[in-house]
Amino acid sequence: MLIRILLCCFLLPHALHAAVIRMGPSALLQTVADKAQPGDTILVAAGLYPQHDIIIRKPLTIIGENYPVFDGGKQYQVFIVTAENVRIQGITVQHTGRSSLVDMAGIRLQNVSGAVIQNCRFLETTYAVYIQHSRHCTVTGNQIKASATDELQSGNGIHAWKSDSLLIKGNTIAGHRDGIYFEFVTGSSILHNVSYNNIRYGLHFMFSHHDTYSHNTFRNNGAGVAVMYTKDVTMTANTFYHNWGDASYGILLKDISDSRITGNRFSKNTIGIFMEGSSRIHISRNEFSSNGWAMRVQASCEANVIEQNNFVDNSFDVATNGTMMLNTFRGNYWDKYEGYDLNRDGTGDVPYHPVSVYSILSERIPATMILYRSFLTNIMDQAEKVMPSIIPDQLRDDAPKTKKWKL
Amino acid sequence: MLTVSKYVFLDLLKNRSILVYSIVLAVLSFTLLGLSGGSAKGLLSLLNITLLFVPVITTLFATIYFFNSLEFIELLLSQPVKRTGILLSEYAGMALSLAAAFILGVGLPLLIMVPVAASFMLVLTGVLLTFIFTSVALLIFVLSKDKTRGIGAAIIVSLFFTLLFDGLMMAFIFTFSDYPIDRALVGIMSFNPVDLARVLMLLQLDVAVLMGYSGALFKEFLGSATGSIYSVACMICWAVAPLLLAIRVFRKKDL
Amino acid sequence: MIRIEKLTKSFGKFKALDNISLHLEKGQAVSLLGPNGSGKTTLIKSILGLVVPGKGSITINGRLVSKDESYRAGIGYMPQIGRYPDNMTIEQVIRMVRDIRKDPADCDEELYFRFGLNKVRHKKMRTLSGGTRQKVSASLAFLFSPDIYILDEPTAGLDPVANEILKDKIAAECARGKLVLITSHVLSDLDGLTSHIIYLQDGRLMFHESVEQLQARTGERKLNKIIASILEKQNLITC
């Protein structure tokens, strides 16, 4: 065997046909990997491997059979990848250590490109996949689960920092601090992931330009999803569900510009979209249903266009903190709209004011919420319709739809 | 005393007013739920109707019915029966038939068109309100000297709970908004069964928005199961207390 | 059978009954007379336990009225105005009262049949005339063959035929040794039935005497004449 490998090394220095190496729990993966040739495939048999700080220094493919378990003994990191084109597939990584000095990762990608981490399981890791200074890496189909309880003691499911052209696809992430964390990551895609029950954000996204995330589901995360300080983000067809709390959002948009939010569903969140300091965002064809506030658009936002969305069963449709409104609402469907459509073109003939009196009132004096939906509230809303005095007049939809958009 | 209850219940089931009440509720329910396509919007309109109609109609109808039954109650009391028994039977017959009318008028359409948890809660609150205001009507009946005064009192009491109370509470909130009044508000609210019913529904329909406020009121009371349990408990007290008081007064009342 | 001792009842400042003592025995047919507001109804209601006495006591067959309600098993009461739940049928009303009385096997249904109520038993109370409702009240009062009958204006609104049937029944029950207490405005109705007369005025007992005694005292035979002559005398005194 050894002779054959040696022969391969000498005769085929570029590993024209790579070798397949099998190993079991009695062997050390570090040793096997060090001995393997670039391009070799290591097949890891099922079993428990209490091995840690395994450094992959050459382009290898590591495939687990029936999810062999690599256990960091709650003290160490498990895999550190420093070579190009490494592929890790079908293994279980569990119990990494926890440290305030080092971010302990299940699999760490360090200055690499072309790495693929596929169909792995991560259990009780501080950071499951940790990507830094890397390009063209793919993380797909992984099950990532932990049971973090507080922000300081825990790490993120998929953590990417200063990287480019990543593809994060089809992963399920739960119980971390942030499900997916992106900082200074550009030109990347986050697709078809499910991120839930994380204690802070389902997706935490900063300084990451030209990225796309779509078809993801974010639910029951402590504070929802935060997208901040970024240009040119495309957010489509995601589901933001059941993010409850006084600082919890479907999405928090802070200093975002030139972006697109299309075809998403915001359901049962305390605030569907919270926008602050954001501009030139096109928000269209989204469905906002059963949220506390569908949107909160702060006065620091400008030139955003909100059109062709459905607003249904929200306690309040829109809230704001000023009287100025430099954004455009048009052609949305509001279930609270009570205007008429005489020429039957599907567009209401009188404008709709999405900010209700009671939402303003309750913001000034929260205690008034105890009287919400009483007969008195209805009277106040009707009175305001006849004689507007409190609600910002500029915030209105001049062409509200009378029928729901089919989204 | 199940006997008398049974006959009162059967009598009321054939009562035209109860029939009309049930039909009006059913028509409203089907229309509102139909218009809104079975969404929460229809549920909310129904909530408003429940909070307004049930207290007013229950109180008025029950008071009038009790006064009209005065001679019959006298006749029953000339039989070897206890006063408490007769009064309780009248109450049970009345409350059950009004509750049946509400369940048929509102519960059935809801069950067909919006079978969600909030709908069940709405039916529950409606039934609780029916029991409460029948109880209040009974108290008005035993305390009033004659029918005219009784009906007057019924109108005032039901309007007080449906409209006036909230106005006063709003005034209180505005006046003392700079002070920590959260707990006081929960206390004050407990004195109005209509508000308790409304908060029960609020906890079903608007938890998302309630979670968005800070303060003890929202964190401790409205934000957890405590709020619902407290409200239901208070409402049960509201049904039982006037009933017990009515029995006490009725035991010594000259008919 | 009925012993009333120093019964006083006030409604606010108004004294409805003022220190009334009465002993009524079985076999008597007692007419309770007096002008409107004299306390007749209050007295009846006190006996029935519908009005709680202020002072004094009422004992029926040796049992205190205020103690418990069981004494009422021995009383048949026919109210002045019979009002019943609108949508109950005659049959249901009778059924219900029988159920309350634990449904005794042998009931006196004579009046029920003689009034012809069995033919209209499926009619709702709402649709009945005042007279028919009176018939129902009367049937109920006599249904359980009680020892004491309390009949408040029993003949008002009854047609002459029914009137006679009722009077026959009252006479028969008296003859069986029952105590009958009747109030009525129409004094001629009570002729021949009454053995004793109680006269109340302003809550006070004016007299309680047997008809024979009164006839002897006034020399009149008819009840209304007797009463008229007594009242005249009293007016003379008070004037």
Automatic annotation (TrEMBL), chain A:
The keyword Repeat applies. Pfam families: NosD (PF05048). It comes from the Bacteria. SMART domains: CASH (SM00722), PbH1 (SM00710). NCBIfam families: NosD_copper_fam (TIGR04247), para_beta_helix (TIGR03804). PANTHER family: F-BOX ONLY PROTEIN, F-BOX ONLY PROTEIN 10. This is Carbohydrate-binding/sugar hydrolysis domain-containing protein.
UniProtKB/TrEMBL annotation, chain B:
GO terms for molecular function: ABC-type transporter activity. Pfam families: ABC2_membrane_2. Coiled coil: none annotated. The keyword Metal-binding does not apply. GO terms for cellular component: plasma membrane. Keywords: Membrane, Transmembrane, Transmembrane helix. The chain crosses the membrane at residues 18-37, 43-67, 88-112, 118-143, 150-176, 196-218, 230-250. This is Uncharacterized protein. The lineage of its organism: Bacteria, Pseudomonadati, Bacteroidota, Chitinophagia, Chitinophagales.
